[in-house]
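Now for a concrete sample entry.
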Amino acid sequence: MAALMAMFIGGAKAQEKPGIKLYGFIRNYACFDTRESMTSNSEQFYYMPKDEKLDALGKDINEQPNIMLLSITTRLGLNITGPEFLGAKTSAKIEADFAGFGTSNTVLRIRQAYAKMAWEKNSVLLGQAWHPMMGDMMPDVFSLETGAPFTPFSRTPQLRYDYTNKGFTLTATALYQFQYTSYGPDGSSFNYARNAIVPELYFQAMYKKGGFMVGAGVDLLTLKPRQNYTWNVTDEQGNTTAGTFKCSEDPVVSISPTLFASYKKGNWGVKGRFTYAQNAAHLSMISGYGVTEIHDNGEQEYGSINSVSGWVDVTYKKTLKKGFLTFCCFAGYTKNLGCNDDIIGLSSNSTANLYMRGEKNMDNMWRIAPSVLYTHNAMSIGIEYNPTTVAYGTYDSRYKVSNTHNVTNHRICAMLKYNF
């Protein structure tokens, strides 16, 4: 690829300079929560309320209200258009915000950085961009999590190919984890996917006509959880010592299909997505995998945690004398289906062989989040009410949960954003 690029760079016309357009916004985001919750990005990216944690007097320690106001999602981006290359129109994007963290300071974080070549019916994208499993259709909410964990959410390095003809688009993508990663014995890391060699693969078919869109896709993920392991070895004299061995275990292979559709007419719009997720923690979903068998030589087999998730949102846009109002109501539901096999050693006292995102005793979760956003010229101001309820309970050896009780967090978010 480098040699091919070098051949054509020298032939580019000197007068063909790229066009550059700056965009972005300054965003101030405030959230109030009625209890402790699982979040990221300094509590702006919301997942779920934590389960009850009772003290010696039976009081719930996690029933602690909190509030925050931050500007770290302020965003800067460049859209770039360039000269023709191999008969294709070329473009690129660089986008960043301040939501990455050092030890004590916010730092500039890459969001998207890719180059794209587009012919009449074919296009190729290389770089970091939205995961195609969610990037082609997102909910219209303004909260930072954009419908997660009920919908896939990820930006990741990728090589994407699209074929478009008569409203149909066929997509094939190879993806590599970076910021949004899987879980394993060493916590959250992209090494499990990198060491598996095989990239994550996503295939999708989509059809658009007028205000109607419908599509289906399937995601295939391969992980290698361990490079080596320690195991007790007994010699001929009956002496037992611990040795370290290189792993030759079968990888964890997971398949996650999805269906989605949207329709817009006039000021009204409706969208929805259904996903059957296996080991989809890297997509910001409540998911993972566990150890289902340990062989005599210490090597292990793994099974994916299965779940189903769905969401729908309805929007209405009302034009005013100055600006417009956007009303949105988002509803999401996810259900834990457990593992197809027993997870070794899984009990109320031990989850050592269970690797997943989310609270580990969740049966199901739902959310209904209405919001209103007022926009006039460059300024937008909005408020959202986001109640999320989780049914927590007792899990069995296959991580199926029963004897549940509900825990709810009431989140109220306000946003002031200046667009440019």
In short: Helices lie at 2-9, 132-135, 191-195.
